[in-house]
Amino acid sequence: MRTINQGQLFSAIVESTFGAVGVRSDGQVVQELVYLPPTFDEKAPTDAVAERAAVQLERYLSDPDYRFDLPLATVGTAFQQRVWQAIAAIPRGEVLTYGDIARAIRSAPRAVGQACGANWFPLVIPCHRVTATGGLGGFAHSDDDTGFHLGVKRWLLAHEKVPGYR
């Protein structure tokens, strides 16, 4: 059985306090951003788009007010894109609930949660800014309160100085 080097999966890997962010690009657009545990080593960008993404990720990780400007692949259903557009409008330092987004786009909270979990571009489309009515909610299709993904969500909300997460 052939083993694939973890770094071969990504065009760049940017280290962060919570682990790392993997960048997949095709040289034209960012195909996907992925939260990675700390077992992944940093990887230098393999193309200009990955380099642009890596630089912008590093800027955001040092300054939560940094705004991304990346060429993103067109992905998702029309519904998911409506949800992602609503999420992208949430200002840094604020959160909305799944129900808030659902009311804004005339949908259901569970459907909004599914679209959040299907987000191909976390951080650029800040799904961490969407919480449950009674607390943190899930993140990246995970709701394990002590797990990696919810730890990332907590870190991001604290990084963005959201009240209650500092």
From TrEMBL:
<feature type="domain" description="Methylated-DNA-[protein]-cysteine S-methyltransferase DNA binding">
    <location>
        <begin position="78"/>
        <end position="162"/>
    </location>
</feature>
<dbReference type="Pfam" id="PF01035">
    <property type="entry name" value="DNA_binding_1"/>
</dbReference>
<dbReference type="InterPro" id="IPR036388">
    <property type="entry name" value="WH-like_DNA-bd_sf"/>
</dbReference>
<keyword id="KW-0227">DNA damage</keyword>
<dbReference type="InterPro" id="IPR014048">
    <property type="entry name" value="MethylDNA_cys_MeTrfase_DNA-bd"/>
</dbReference>
<dbReference type="InterPro" id="IPR036631">
    <property type="entry name" value="MGMT_N_sf"/>
</dbReference>
<protein>
    <submittedName>
        <fullName>Methylated-DNA--protein-cysteine methyltransferase</fullName>
    </submittedName>
</protein>
<keyword id="KW-0808">Transferase</keyword>
<dbReference type="GO" id="GO:0006281">
    <property type="term" value="P:DNA repair"/>
</dbReference>
<dbReference type="GO" id="GO:0003908">
    <property type="term" value="F:methylated-DNA-[protein]-cysteine S-methyltransferase activity"/>
</dbReference>
<dbReference type="InterPro" id="IPR036217">
    <property type="entry name" value="MethylDNA_cys_MeTrfase_DNAb"/>
</dbReference>
<keyword id="KW-0489">Methyltransferase</keyword>
<dbReference type="GO" id="GO:0032259">
    <property type="term" value="P:methylation"/>
</dbReference>
